[in-house]
Specification:
alpha/beta, Nucleotidyltransferase, domain 5, 10 strands, binds 5'-O-[(R)-(carboxyoxy)(hydroxy)phosphoryl]adenosine, binds zinc ion
Length: 347
């Protein structure tokens, strides 16, 4: 018997995503982004994102169904992001998914976006091991998870207490006069700098802070340190050593992320680390994760970047895992939750 066909719908931020997954096989994945509409504002404008989802919703789903050579009738279950994310964007996706579920009589699963960032890796690297640690890093989230079963048992080990890693990169990008979103530009610039030239602070990494927050992150002190450093040069009328700043900053972020993720693997006896979210494109994070994981005998699984940024495949993958595990569908009046806790896999 063939496995159930799942339609996944993602609208938590600025990407409208729709994908079809059967079991752990991805059949189609289509994404429409409204990033171009936000770039001139230097940040995502929630109302603009909501309207863009409204316009892209039906065409994106139609394109995914066409690409998979299936129709809505063939779909066995629908999964949609219920949170966390921008409340207006979540509402558009959830309302659309409810309408589809009601019209077709298909079961609906409202799922956690952050857990989807980890779940998508099964479509690329195959079934998960019994237990693993997941590091989900993007412009909106920085979370460390202990996953025993992606459909039923996810424990939040830690998260950022202030900025997300990508968000910190975007702010440093702005300080250095780079275009928005600054993450990829800071990354590129950092590759031409000396990462040992400037040592920036590592948040929650020593003494009492570390003991109290072994798996939490904080990037606001680092961001302030970078700002002070840059201002010092500007006040003296000297040219800012931008490449060294970018390299030292990238090193601080990647150092903390990988150190804490691998400590979690060691403490919880996991030999697999899954990394997801748009920030996993970061070159220093990738290199340092590979280097340190090898030292710890840990295997790192990072999906290709198109599955790390927000997409429908991650939601379909988590929906598929839920259906496989026999989880009951969500109610048709499922709530969206912009601050959905990580313990909630499905609402
Ligand atoms: O997952 P994503 O596309 O959207 C969110 O859910 O936030 O992540 C985008 C974030 C942005 O902050 C972007 O600047 C950052 O990830 N980013 C990077 C890199 N590529 C994307 N940050 C550092 N280095 C990169 N190579
Ligand atoms: Zn995301």
């Amino acid at each position: 018997m063939t496995e159930p066909l799942i339609l996944g719908i993602e609208t938590s931020c600025d990407e409208t995503g729709a994908a079809l997954v059967r079991g752990r096989e991805l059949l189609a994945d289509v994404t429409a982004s409204s990033m171009d509409e936000h770039a001139r504002f230097g940040g995502i404008v929630p109302e603009v994102a909501s309207r863009a989802h409204l316009e892209a919703f039906v065409p994106t789903i139609d394109a995914a169904l066409d690409a998979a050579h299936v129709t809505l009738d063939d779909v066995d279950a629908i999964a949609v992001t219920a949170g966390p994310g921008l409340v207006g964007s979540l509402t558009v996706g959830a309302a659309g998914a409810k309408a589809l579920a009601l019209a077709t009589g298909k079961p609906l699963y409202g799922v956690n976006h952050v857990i989807g960032h980890a779940a998508v890796d099964e479509l690329v690297h195959g079934a998960f091991p019994e237990r693993f640690v997941a590091l989900v890093v993007s412009g909106g989230h920085t979370s460390l998870l202990l996953v025993t079963d992606i459909a039923t048992d996810v424990v939040e080990l830690g998260q950022t207490l202030d900025d997300a890693a990508g968000e910190a990169f975007d702010k440093v990008g702005r300080l250095l006069g780079l275009p928005y979103p600054g993450g990829p530009y800071v990354d590129k610039l950092s590759q031409t700098g000396d990462r040992g030239a400037i040592r920036f602070p590592r948040g929650l990494s020593t003494g009492k802070d570390k003991a109290r927050h072994p798996y939490d992150f904080s990037f606001s002190g680092l961001k302030t340190a970078v700002a002070r450093y840059v201002e010092g040069y500007e006040d003296r009328g000297e040219e800012v050593p931008a490449a060294d700043v970018a390299a030292g900053f990238s090193e601080a972020v990647a150092d903390v992320l990988t150190r804490k993720a691998l400590a979690a693997c060691e403490v919880h006896g996991c030999d697999t680390l899954v990394v997801g979210g748009g920030f996993s494109a970061n070159s220093r994070l990738r290199d340092l994760a590979a280097e340190r994981a090898a030292e710890h005998g840990v295997t790192v699984r990072i999906p290709p970047i198109r599955f790390c940024t927000d997409n429908g495949a991650m939601i379909a993958a988590l929906g598929s895992a839920l259906v496989r595990s026999g989880a009951a569908p969500s109610s048709l009046d499922l709530p969206t939750d912009s601050g959905m806790p990580l313990q909630t896999i499905r609402v």
